[in-house]
Give the backbone structure.
Amino acid sequence: MLNPAELDQEWLRSRLVEAGPYAALDVVGLTGSTNSDLMAAAARGAVDRTVLLAEEQAQGRGRLQRQWHSPRGYGLQLSVLLRPPVPTAVLSWVPLLTGIAAVQAVDRAAGVPACLKWPNDLLLGDEQRKAAGILGELVTGRDAPAIVIGIGLNVHHRSADLPSGSSGLPGTSLAVEGAEVDRAELAVSLLTALAELDDLWRAHGGDVSASGLADRYRARCGTLGRQVRVHLGSGSFEGTATDVDDSGRLVVRGADGSVREVSAGDVVHVRTSTVR
């Protein structure tokens, strides 16, 4: 059942700005894309750890330029601007760290089995269907390094509201998985977890190995050990996903023993069994 309660901006600010780790937070009723809005704000000088949430997003963008729309009140859609004092080269890890935060938040708020499909799709339930996507976009200009990270999480959606994913299976939501969750509490849980991971990452200068964050990601990544099909611009190939390296690339071993490191591509789980 859809929870009609709108997000309370002042309550969120009291939890996440006044008594929390963020510098600024706004809630808007309708926007095209929270990522686009926050990218524009970043160009105008918005500060580190600025958050924008939207009740309804009409032109959301996912990985590989996929478009999606979330009706008012159904989901949690937000973007965060980060300006971490780390090398620009390691910013590619921010979406993966955000994925860890999403799994932790769902664990805490809903108790629904959750894992990540590389690089940062949130999968829920025994059938591991997609419930959230994460998109990171680099901010260019004199204030770099900076990144805007966007999250779209299905909360109150019914099965009929959800499109099929690349696997052919319909997506899912917390409601479909049997969890009734307050969106504001979920937002606090997610953003708090992200700030904690970001603090640890920054404390180690963006080193995911020394901070232990690479191992934490691997432990949450449901792609590892699976047979996968990787779609690239030039074609596709299949193999077993064996690792995520310290650069965030998916390591895939083919049937012939060849090994490929994938930095970008559309990954499909082709079997449900795992081989560790």
